[in-house]
Amino acid sequence: MDIRTCFNSLEDDLLTFAQNLVHIRSYSGDERNLALYIREEMEKLGYLVSIDAMGNVIGQLGEKGKSILLDAHMDTVAVHDAAEWQHDPFSGEIIDGYLYGCGSVDMKAALASAVYGGALAYRLGWIQDKTVYVTCTVDEEYCDGENLKYIFQDRALRPDFAVICEPSSNKIAIGHKGKGQFIIRTKGVSAHGSAPEEGINAVYEMAEIITRVDALNHRLSAIGNEHGTIVLSNISCTTASLNAVPSECKIYLDRRIAPWEDMDEIQKELDSLIEGKNASWEVGELRRSSWTGYNIHYIPFHAGWKIDQSHPFVKTAAEAYETTFSIRPSSYLFWNFGTNGTTPAIMGIPTIGFGPGDPMQAHMVDEKCDLGQIKDACRFYAELIRYV
Questions:
Q1: How far apart are CA 132 and CA 139, in angstroms?
Q2: Is the CATH number of domain 3-176+304-387 3.40.630.10?
Q3: Which fold is adopted by the domain 178-289?
Q4: In the structure, how many helices (H) and strands (E) does the chain have?
Q5: CA–CA gap between residue 204 and residue 358 (Å, rounded)
Q6: Residue among 373, 370, 357, 368 at smallest CA distance from 89
Q7: How do the pLDDT tens digits run along the chain, 388 residues long?
Q8: Strand ranges (E), 139-247
């Protein structure tokens, strides 16, 4: 059976699966119902399926030769503005060639394409001498990469290749920026508001640091393509009352790290931001509980990554792309946002990204994904499995 005939036999089920994924709300930490549904669908398609202690769903096809992992996270951001949506966020409506709903782009369409892409390759007999893993992971929106780190450690798994199925408008992505999330605290001395000279205002101490942060971002932005960024994303202070001098001020910084930037230099950069001030900085560690109750400890300080276009895996992906789209890729994408790809890339596993949907639609009101891209992504994943 040729791929087009085989795909046509799966196409309706693929789109129904994508719709049903959108129907099931799966905010970060609340993916249980979606995980159980995905397990059921995978088993119908012939996968060997398990759900690990963290709550990730791992589907496996084949057990020989080279291995490739396709990863798609199950969780979505929460909808706080449902009244602004013209289409119900969980309707999974298909209108004018688009699948609408929360997570349709980020990244339930890709999850459906990956699951069915593996099934398509399996039915075509392309997995006889290899192993395919499709991982449907938890809590990526908060703790990107921790889910795959757990899977790799728990299963003693190291795939030969990894594909991160985040939205890329069906272009091959060859890397993304790293991330550092930091807290800076300044200390002051509390005093009554009627006698501020008796205290030291921690907010005023922070003011110059904030100016330095802004200046640093301007310097980074002037570097050129694939530059780092830094932004102040939250500020708060501790004060005895509204008529008292604040004794502490805290800011939260989001630092995006270009692949060429040195992590030690990032730490020196933070030292420079607080130099001369009664201040300290630390990595803004995050502790969360997954839907199974597993405690996740996330340290958001990891490097960016970029695979060279001349790497054999990128060439293989380009071959699969040409077979799928009848044209060679004219360019490669570099994501500005973080993904689970940070884990396999840091481990030295050849990693690319590819997924349906416009990344600019992620987390947006009336989020929508092109049906044609969902179908094409499914075929691309199957072809990539064939060629590795």
A1: 23
A2: yes
A3: Alpha-Beta Plaits (3.30.70)
A4: 10, 19
A5: 42
A6: 368
A7: 889 899 999 999 999 999 999 999 999 999 999 999 999 999 999 999 999 999 999 999 999 999 999 999 999 999 998 999 999 999 999 999 999 999 999 999 999 999 999 999 999 999 999 999 999 999 999 999 999 999 999 999 999 999 999 999 999 999 999 999 999 999 999 999 999 999 999 999 999 999 999 999 999 999 877 899 999 999 999 999 999 999 999 999 999 999 999 999 999 999 999 999 999 999 999 999 999 999 999 999 999 999 999 999 999 999 999 999 999 999 999 998 999 999 999 999 999 999 999 999 999 999 999 999 999 999 999 999 999 9
A8: 161-164, 173-176, 178-187, 229-238
Q: Which residues pair with 231 in a beta bridge?
A: 254
Active centre residues (catalytic)? 75, 140
Taking the C-alpha atoms of residue 91 and residue 100, their distance in angstroms, rounded to an integer, is: 7
Domain(s) labelled CATH 3.40.630.10 in the chain stretch across 3-176+304-387
- pTM (2 decimals)? 0.93
Cβ atoms of 178 and 359 within 8 Å: the answer is no
Amino acid identity of residue 228, one-letter, is G
Strands (E), the chain: 48-51, 57-61, 66-73, 94-95, 98-100, 130-137, 161-164, 173-176, 178-187, 229-238, 248-257, 279-283, 286-289, 295-298, 301-302, 305-306, 333-335, 351-353, 368-370
11 - beta bridge partners? none
| Residue 76 DSSP code | B
